[in-house]
UniProtKB/TrEMBL annotation:
Designated name of the protein: Electron transfer flavoprotein subunit beta
Recorded GO MF terms: electron transfer activity
The entry's keywords: Electron transport, Transport
Cofactors required: AMP
Native organism taxonomy: Bacteria, Pseudomonadati, Pseudomonadota, Gammaproteobacteria, Pseudomonadales
Family affiliation: Belongs to the ETF beta-subunit/FixA family.
Keyword Electron transport: yes
GO biological process terms held by the UniProt record: carboxylic acid catabolic process
Classification via PANTHER family: ELECTRON TRANSFER FLAVOPROTEIN BETA-SUBUNIT, ELECTRON TRANSFER FLAVOPROTEIN SUBUNIT BETA
InterPro entries: ET-Flavoprotein_bsu_CS (IPR000049), ETF_a/b_N (IPR014730), ETF_b (IPR012255), ETF_beta_N (IPR033948), Rossmann-like_a/b/a_fold (IPR014729)
Length: 249
Protein backbone atom coordinates (compact mmCIF):
# COMPACT_ATOMS: atom_id res chain seq x y z
CA UNK A 1 0.00 0.00 0.00
CA UNK A 2 1.35 3.41 -0.96
CA UNK A 3 0.98 6.18 1.61
CA UNK A 4 1.25 9.85 0.70
CA UNK A 5 2.04 12.26 3.53
CA UNK A 6 1.64 16.02 3.17
CA UNK A 7 4.01 18.06 5.30
CA UNK A 8 4.22 21.82 5.72
CA UNK A 9 7.18 24.05 6.54
CA UNK A 10 6.14 26.43 9.31
CA UNK A 11 7.71 28.73 11.89
CA UNK A 12 9.11 26.49 14.65
CA UNK A 13 6.66 26.16 17.54
CA UNK A 14 9.27 27.51 20.00
CA UNK A 15 9.63 30.82 18.16
CA UNK A 16 7.81 33.86 19.47
CA UNK A 17 6.44 35.26 16.24
CA UNK A 18 6.70 38.97 15.38
CA UNK A 19 4.26 40.79 13.18
CA UNK A 20 5.77 42.84 10.32
CA UNK A 21 5.78 46.60 10.84
CA UNK A 22 3.32 47.11 7.95
CA UNK A 23 0.87 44.50 9.41
CA UNK A 24 1.02 42.50 6.17
CA UNK A 25 2.01 39.26 7.88
CA UNK A 26 4.46 37.54 10.20
CA UNK A 27 8.14 38.42 9.95
CA UNK A 28 9.98 35.35 8.68
CA UNK A 29 13.45 36.91 8.41
CA UNK A 30 16.01 34.85 10.34
CA UNK A 31 13.30 32.75 11.97
CA UNK A 32 13.78 29.03 12.64
CA UNK A 33 11.51 26.97 10.39
CA UNK A 34 10.48 23.34 11.06
CA UNK A 35 8.05 20.68 9.99
CA UNK A 36 4.55 21.39 11.29
CA UNK A 37 4.14 19.24 14.46
CA UNK A 38 0.92 17.57 13.20
CA UNK A 39 2.78 16.65 9.99
CA UNK A 40 5.54 15.02 12.09
CA UNK A 41 2.78 12.88 13.60
CA UNK A 42 1.55 12.08 10.07
CA UNK A 43 5.03 10.97 8.97
CA UNK A 44 5.42 8.89 12.14
CA UNK A 45 2.11 7.13 11.53
CA UNK A 46 3.12 6.29 7.95
CA UNK A 47 6.47 4.94 9.16
CA UNK A 48 4.71 2.78 11.76
CA UNK A 49 2.40 1.41 9.04
CA UNK A 50 5.48 0.51 7.00
CA UNK A 51 7.14 -1.13 10.00
CA UNK A 52 3.99 -3.22 10.50
CA UNK A 53 4.20 -4.34 6.87
CA UNK A 54 0.96 -2.52 5.99
CA UNK A 55 2.54 0.25 3.92
CA UNK A 56 5.01 -0.59 1.18
CA UNK A 57 6.07 2.91 0.16
CA UNK A 58 5.90 6.33 1.82
CA UNK A 59 5.96 9.42 -0.38
CA UNK A 60 6.14 12.83 1.30
CA UNK A 61 5.02 15.98 -0.44
CA UNK A 62 5.25 19.63 0.40
CA UNK A 63 4.17 22.76 -1.39
CA UNK A 64 6.40 25.69 -0.65
CA UNK A 65 9.64 27.50 -1.40
CA UNK A 66 12.85 25.71 -2.39
CA UNK A 67 13.98 25.83 1.25
CA UNK A 68 11.12 23.44 2.15
CA UNK A 69 13.43 20.70 0.89
CA UNK A 70 14.83 20.78 4.46
CA UNK A 71 11.54 19.50 5.86
CA UNK A 72 11.33 16.86 3.12
CA UNK A 73 14.84 15.66 4.02
CA UNK A 74 13.73 15.47 7.66
CA UNK A 75 10.77 13.31 6.63
CA UNK A 76 13.11 11.11 4.56
CA UNK A 77 15.40 10.75 7.59
CA UNK A 78 12.38 9.69 9.67
CA UNK A 79 11.60 6.88 7.24
CA UNK A 80 9.85 8.19 4.10
CA UNK A 81 11.11 6.64 0.85
CA UNK A 82 10.93 9.56 -1.55
CA UNK A 83 9.83 13.17 -1.64
CA UNK A 84 8.12 15.65 -3.91
CA UNK A 85 8.47 19.42 -3.65
CA UNK A 86 5.84 21.42 -5.49
CA UNK A 87 7.85 24.58 -5.63
CA UNK A 88 6.06 27.87 -5.15
CA UNK A 89 7.42 30.99 -3.52
CA UNK A 90 3.88 32.40 -3.16
CA UNK A 91 1.91 32.13 0.05
CA UNK A 92 -0.84 29.76 -1.09
CA UNK A 93 -4.22 29.43 0.55
CA UNK A 94 -5.66 26.06 1.54
CA UNK A 95 -7.78 25.61 -1.59
CA UNK A 96 -4.74 26.09 -3.84
CA UNK A 97 -2.75 23.66 -1.67
CA UNK A 98 -5.60 21.11 -1.78
CA UNK A 99 -5.82 21.41 -5.59
CA UNK A 100 -2.07 20.81 -5.90
CA UNK A 101 -2.28 17.85 -3.52
CA UNK A 102 -5.15 16.45 -5.60
CA UNK A 103 -2.90 16.62 -8.70
CA UNK A 104 -0.17 14.75 -6.80
CA UNK A 105 -2.74 12.18 -5.58
CA UNK A 106 -3.89 11.61 -9.18
CA UNK A 107 -0.30 11.04 -10.27
CA UNK A 108 0.80 8.89 -7.35
CA UNK A 109 -2.45 6.97 -6.71
CA UNK A 110 -1.83 6.39 -2.97
CA UNK A 111 -4.23 4.22 -0.98
CA UNK A 112 -3.88 6.42 2.06
CA UNK A 113 -3.17 10.14 2.34
CA UNK A 114 -2.14 11.43 5.76
CA UNK A 115 -2.12 15.13 6.63
CA UNK A 116 -1.87 17.07 9.85
CA UNK A 117 -5.19 18.27 11.27
CA UNK A 118 -3.87 21.83 11.11
CA UNK A 119 -0.79 23.85 10.36
CA UNK A 120 0.31 25.84 13.39
CA UNK A 121 1.12 28.95 11.36
CA UNK A 122 -2.33 29.80 10.03
CA UNK A 123 -4.41 27.30 12.09
CA UNK A 124 -6.64 26.78 9.06
CA UNK A 125 -7.64 23.16 9.70
CA UNK A 126 -9.11 22.78 6.24
CA UNK A 127 -6.63 21.33 3.72
CA UNK A 128 -7.44 17.67 4.48
CA UNK A 129 -11.16 18.32 4.31
CA UNK A 130 -10.81 20.24 1.03
CA UNK A 131 -8.69 17.44 -0.42
CA UNK A 132 -11.44 15.02 0.65
CA UNK A 133 -14.03 17.08 -1.21
CA UNK A 134 -11.88 17.46 -4.35
CA UNK A 135 -10.88 13.79 -4.61
CA UNK A 136 -14.13 12.30 -3.35
CA UNK A 137 -12.09 10.08 -0.98
CA UNK A 138 -13.49 9.15 2.41
CA UNK A 139 -11.97 11.19 5.21
CA UNK A 140 -11.26 10.58 8.89
CA UNK A 141 -10.19 13.81 10.56
CA UNK A 142 -8.62 14.35 14.03
CA UNK A 143 -7.37 10.76 14.18
CA UNK A 144 -6.09 9.35 17.46
CA UNK A 145 -5.90 5.77 16.15
CA UNK A 146 -5.51 4.40 12.63
CA UNK A 147 -5.91 0.71 11.80
CA UNK A 148 -5.83 -0.60 8.24
CA UNK A 149 -7.94 -3.74 7.82
CA UNK A 150 -8.14 -5.15 4.28
CA UNK A 151 -9.63 -2.57 1.96
CA UNK A 152 -10.76 -0.38 4.88
CA UNK A 153 -9.12 1.88 7.40
CA UNK A 154 -10.67 2.30 10.85
CA UNK A 155 -10.05 5.75 12.23
CA UNK A 156 -10.76 6.71 15.82
CA UNK A 157 -11.55 10.42 15.88
CA UNK A 158 -11.28 12.88 18.74
CA UNK A 159 -14.62 14.64 18.87
CA UNK A 160 -16.14 16.96 21.48
CA UNK A 161 -18.05 14.32 23.38
CA UNK A 162 -15.31 11.66 23.32
CA UNK A 163 -14.13 9.27 20.63
CA UNK A 164 -15.81 8.18 17.41
CA UNK A 165 -14.57 5.29 15.27
CA UNK A 166 -15.35 5.32 11.56
CA UNK A 167 -14.56 2.72 8.89
CA UNK A 168 -13.40 4.29 5.63
CA UNK A 169 -13.11 2.57 2.27
CA UNK A 170 -9.63 2.93 0.80
CA UNK A 171 -8.35 5.13 -0.77
CA UNK A 172 -8.89 7.48 2.13
CA UNK A 173 -7.67 10.65 3.77
CA UNK A 174 -6.69 10.85 7.43
CA UNK A 175 -5.75 13.96 9.39
CA UNK A 176 -3.75 13.51 12.56
CA UNK A 177 -4.54 14.70 16.08
CA UNK A 178 -2.01 15.17 18.86
CA UNK A 179 -2.55 11.84 20.61
CA UNK A 180 -2.13 9.61 17.54
CA UNK A 181 1.50 8.89 18.32
CA UNK A 182 4.73 10.38 19.61
CA UNK A 183 7.07 11.10 16.69
CA UNK A 184 10.60 9.70 16.86
CA UNK A 185 13.79 11.68 16.36
CA UNK A 186 15.86 11.05 13.25
CA UNK A 187 19.14 9.24 13.96
CA UNK A 188 22.37 10.60 12.52
CA UNK A 189 22.90 7.61 10.16
CA UNK A 190 19.33 8.07 8.87
CA UNK A 191 19.92 11.81 8.35
CA UNK A 192 22.96 10.91 6.24
CA UNK A 193 21.04 8.23 4.31
CA UNK A 194 18.19 10.69 3.64
CA UNK A 195 20.52 12.89 1.61
CA UNK A 196 20.64 10.17 -1.05
CA UNK A 197 16.90 9.44 -1.20
CA UNK A 198 15.02 10.73 -4.29
CA UNK A 199 13.50 14.22 -4.12
CA UNK A 200 11.63 15.48 -7.18
CA UNK A 201 10.88 19.15 -7.73
CA UNK A 202 7.81 20.09 -9.79
CA UNK A 203 5.97 23.34 -10.41
CA UNK A 204 2.24 24.07 -10.04
CA UNK A 205 2.22 24.77 -13.80
CA UNK A 206 3.61 21.31 -14.57
CA UNK A 207 0.76 19.87 -12.48
CA UNK A 208 -1.71 22.00 -14.46
CA UNK A 209 -3.03 23.77 -11.38
CA UNK A 210 -3.80 27.47 -11.12
CA UNK A 211 -2.87 28.77 -7.68
CA UNK A 212 -4.68 32.10 -8.01
CA UNK A 213 -5.81 33.09 -4.54
CA UNK A 214 -9.44 33.42 -3.55
CA UNK A 215 -8.53 34.84 -0.15
CA UNK A 216 -6.69 38.07 0.61
CA UNK A 217 -5.14 38.75 4.00
CA UNK A 218 -6.14 42.28 4.93
CA UNK A 219 -4.25 42.72 8.16
CA UNK A 220 -2.24 40.75 10.71
CA UNK A 221 -2.00 42.12 14.25
CA UNK A 222 -0.25 40.96 17.39
CA UNK A 223 -2.62 40.27 20.32
CA UNK A 224 -3.12 43.22 22.68
CA UNK A 225 -0.53 43.26 25.48
CA UNK A 226 -2.04 41.99 28.73
CA UNK A 227 -1.85 44.32 31.72
CA UNK A 228 -0.01 43.03 34.78
CA UNK A 229 -1.98 41.31 37.55
CA UNK A 230 -2.15 42.47 41.17
CA UNK A 231 -1.66 40.72 44.51
CA UNK A 232 -4.53 40.94 46.98
CA UNK A 233 -3.97 40.89 50.74
CA UNK A 234 -6.96 38.78 51.76
CA UNK A 235 -9.74 36.56 50.50
CA UNK A 236 -12.19 39.30 51.42
CA UNK A 237 -10.37 41.74 49.16
CA UNK A 238 -10.33 39.14 46.35
CA UNK A 239 -14.07 38.57 46.67
CA UNK A 240 -14.70 42.32 46.75
CA UNK A 241 -12.67 42.82 43.54
CA UNK A 242 -14.31 39.90 41.76
CA UNK A 243 -17.70 41.33 42.70
CA UNK A 244 -17.23 45.03 42.13
CA UNK A 245 -14.33 45.35 39.65
CA UNK A 246 -14.36 42.22 37.51
CA UNK A 247 -18.13 41.79 38.12
CA UNK A 248 -17.83 38.04 37.64
CA UNK A 249 -19.54 36.92 40.87
P1 LIG B 1 -4.14 23.64 7.32
O1 LIG B 1 -5.42 23.24 6.68
O2 LIG B 1 -3.41 24.74 6.61
O3 LIG B 1 -4.28 23.93 8.80
O4 LIG B 1 -3.14 22.39 7.19
C1 LIG B 1 -3.52 21.09 7.53
C2 LIG B 1 -2.54 20.10 6.94
O5 LIG B 1 -2.56 20.22 5.51
C3 LIG B 1 -1.07 20.27 7.32
O6 LIG B 1 -0.77 19.67 8.56
C4 LIG B 1 -0.39 19.55 6.15
O7 LIG B 1 -0.46 18.13 6.32
C5 LIG B 1 -1.29 19.93 4.97
N1 LIG B 1 -0.74 21.15 4.33
C6 LIG B 1 -1.14 22.44 4.50
N2 LIG B 1 -0.38 23.28 3.76
C7 LIG B 1 0.52 22.49 3.12
C8 LIG B 1 1.59 22.74 2.20
N3 LIG B 1 1.91 23.97 1.81
N4 LIG B 1 2.31 21.68 1.75
C9 LIG B 1 1.99 20.42 2.13
N5 LIG B 1 1.01 20.12 2.99
C10 LIG B 1 0.28 21.14 3.48
Amino acid sequence: MKVLVAVKRVVDYNVKVRVKADNSGVDLANVKMSMNPFCEIAVEEAVRLKEKGVASEIVVVTIGPNTAQEQLRTALALGADRAILVESADELNSLAVAKLLKAVVEKEQPQLVILGKQAIDSDNNQTGQMLGALTGYAQGTFASKVEVAGDKVNVTREIDGGLQTVALNLPAIVTTDLRLNEPRYASLPNIMKAKKKPLDVVTPDALGVSTASTVKTLKVEAPAARSAGIKVKSVAELVEKLKNEAKVI
